[in-house]
Design goal:
- The chain has about 140 residues and is α+β, with helices and mostly antiparallel strands.
- Helices cover about 35% and strands about 30% of the residues.
- A hairpin with a 2-residue loop joins strand 2 and strand 3.
- Helix 1 runs antiparallel to helix 2 and helix 2 packs antiparallel against helix 5.
- The longest helix has 21 residues.
- The protein starts with a strand and ends in a 6-residue tail after the last strand.
- The mean pLDDT is about 95.
C-alpha cells in the first residue's frame, strides 16, 4: 500500500498532519509494536517539519510491506547546501519564524538518522528527497 500527503510550506498549523495519519493507520493494523510505531512517526514528523520550515512545499509518501516501512519526503528548493554539515547536532538554517514556533533546534536530520534503519538524502538547488527505511527489530521490543 502506498499513500501520499501534501505538505504546505510555512504552515505550522497543519504541520504533523501526514505523520499523524500514518500513526493512526499503523495503529489500526494491530501488526506493529508501539515502540516501532513511535520510532517511525517521530522520524516522519521530523522530516515533515523540515519540509514546512525549509522548502516551498512538498509531499510525503509511505509504503508498507510486511515488516518494512519506507517513507519518502520530496520538497521543492532550495535544497541542502552541505548535507554533512546539516547532519551535525545543533546545526540549523531555520528562520526566525520557525524558532518562534518552537522549531529549528538543528536536530531533525540527526534524529531521522538515529530513528531509521537506513536514511538517504539527495539534494540540489531544485529540492530534496529524503528516504527512510524502518524494520521491526530488537529496539522495538
Amino acid at each position: 500500500m502506498v499513500k501520499e500527503h501534501q505538505i504546505i510550506a510555512g504552515n505550522f498549523e497543519l504541520a504533523g498532519r501526514a505523520s499523524s495519519d500514518l500513526k493512526r493507520y499503523l495503529k489500526s493494523l494491530n501488526s506493529y509494536p508501539r515502540p516501532f510505531i513511535s520510532r517511525v512517526c517521530s522520524a516522519s514528523y521530523e522530516a515533515e517539519i523540515n519540509v514546512v520550515i525549509h522548502s516551498v512545499g512538498g509531499y510525503m509518501t509511505y509504503e508498507i510491506n510486511d515488516n518494512q516501512i519506507e517513507l519518502d519526503f520530496y520538497d521543492d528548493g532550495p535544497g541542502i547546501l552541505d548535507i554533512e554539515q546539516a547532519m551535525l547536532k545543533g546545526f540549523s538554517t531555520a528562520n526566525q519564524i520557525a524558532h518562534i514556533n518552537g522549531f529549528g533546534a538543528g536536530m531533525g536530520l540527526n534524529n531521522m538518522y538515529e530513528l531509521s534503519n537506513k536514511l538517504t538524502i539527495h539534494s540540489s538547488h531544485r529540492g530534496t528527497h529524503i528516504k527512510m527505511f524502518f524494520e521491526v527489530g530488537e529496539r522495538d521490543a
